[in-house]
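ARCHIVE CARD
CATEGORY: sequence design from structure
SOURCE FIELD: tokenized fold
FIELD CONTENT:
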């Protein structure tokens, strides 16, 4: 019985193997003839790395924000330092090194020469240009504000999503965000510098890309430090520009305009763009302004802009415009969530959204001008 059973098992196994080989060859033939899209669906190579990178992304974010807050990149602009020297200069606990500077090396923000305790750290070309407070390319103002204000507010994103209410300073005071922000001169100056840092590249690109040849005057509504007006005037010698913002911003803008040597062609004017008529100009710009408001107030500003422009005039908004399909510009979508945290009912928008609102009041022609990174200029012509 056992022998017969073994022989039978052996013959069955041989037959099974032969059948399996034939079936395998048949399967291979079928698989090779299938479209690649089906193969991807059948044999996915799933990897959780992207999930982990985004989910734990606050590790890297806070490390960079703290480095900016501490002035690390400014200190390293003067000379290379060892880890111990960094700790002494910045007032850090010895436990902070070498992990803190080495993490910044791994993240691509610092360079390190050699190994061990004697290793020295220096800025990368990018961090030296953009994160040294003494550099004319410094953009750290927005990161300083992100660290001081936005980082803790974003911890309450879940509450914002559930309630639709702001999660910033107004959460406890009940005061409007800008009123609270503008109360303290130091906080206002920090906000102005932050906006200048994040906007510089876009404003410079706009000043050079937009065709100003048929225009003579520009008014930048919500002009803050007068940065956009100064850049347009510097790049277009025939243009005269007005920076329009709340009265307590005017001294800051005037100081910056004088520093730029453009006082003869750039003026800072005080006013409230919801209360006062907008200054008349051939071109009216709003850089990161329209997204601060709900739809009703957006449309009020668009109507006021239309009324202040001559026939043929141009209305320009500079924002991280969301792509029309709402699939690609992640920064624009995240910025819209930031508007939820800051204001509750404010939101970012797409180029087609802007065109539809402008068309309602009479604007006739539209275009999108790509600027830097995720940002663009949307233009409506009267």
């Amino acid at each position: 019985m056992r022998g017969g059973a073994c022989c039978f098992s052996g013959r069955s196994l041989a037959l099974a193997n032969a059948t399996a080989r034939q079936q395998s060859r048949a399967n291979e033939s079928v698989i090779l003839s299938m479209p690649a899209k089906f193969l991807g669906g059948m044999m996915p190579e799933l990897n959780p790395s992207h999930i982990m990178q985004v989910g734990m992304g606050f590790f890297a974010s806070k490390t960079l924000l703290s480095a900016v807050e501490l002035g690390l990149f400014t200190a390293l602009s003067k000379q290379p330092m060892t880890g111990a020297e960094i700790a002494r200069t910045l007032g850090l606990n010895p436990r902070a090194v070498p992990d803190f500077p080495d993490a910044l090396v791994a993240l691509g923000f610092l360079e390190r020469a050699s190994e061990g305790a004697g290793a020295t750290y220096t800025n990368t070309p990018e961090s030296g240009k953009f994160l040294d407070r003494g550099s004319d390319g410094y953009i750290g103002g927005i990161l300083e504000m992100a660290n001081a204000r936005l980082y803790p507010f974003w911890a309450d994103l879940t509450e914002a999503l559930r309630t639709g209410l702001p999660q910033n300073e107004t959460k406890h005071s009940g005061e409007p965000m800008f009123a609270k922000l503008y109360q303290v001169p130091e906080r206002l100056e920090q906000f102005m510098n932050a906006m200048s840092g994040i906007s510089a590249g876009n404003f410079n690109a706009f000043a050079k890309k937009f065709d100003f040849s048929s225009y003579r005057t520009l008014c930048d509504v919500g002009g803050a430090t007068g940065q956009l007006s100064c850049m347009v005037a510097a790049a277009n010698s025939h243009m005269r520009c007005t920076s329009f913002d709340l009265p307590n911003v005017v001294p800051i803008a005037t100081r910056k305009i004088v520093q730029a040597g453009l006082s003869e062609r750039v003026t800072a004017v005080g006013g409230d763009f919801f209360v006062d008529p907008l200054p008349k100009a051939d071109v009216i710009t709003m850089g990161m302004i329209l997204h601060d408001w709900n739809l009703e107030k957006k449309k009020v500003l668009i109507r006021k802009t239309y009324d202040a422009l001559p026939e043929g005039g141009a209305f320009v908004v500079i924002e991280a415009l969301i792509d029309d399909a709402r699939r690609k510009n992640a920064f624009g979508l995240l910025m819209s969530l930031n508007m939820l945290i800051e204001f509750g009912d404010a939101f970012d928008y797409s180029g087609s959204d802007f065109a539809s609102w402008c068309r309602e009041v009479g604007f006739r022609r539209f275009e999108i001008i790509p600027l830097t990174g995720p940002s663009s200029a949307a233009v409506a012509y009267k």
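CARD ANNOTATION: The domain at 157-381 is CATH 3.40.50.150 (Rossmann fold). The chain has 18 helices and ten strands.
SHELF: design records, drawer C
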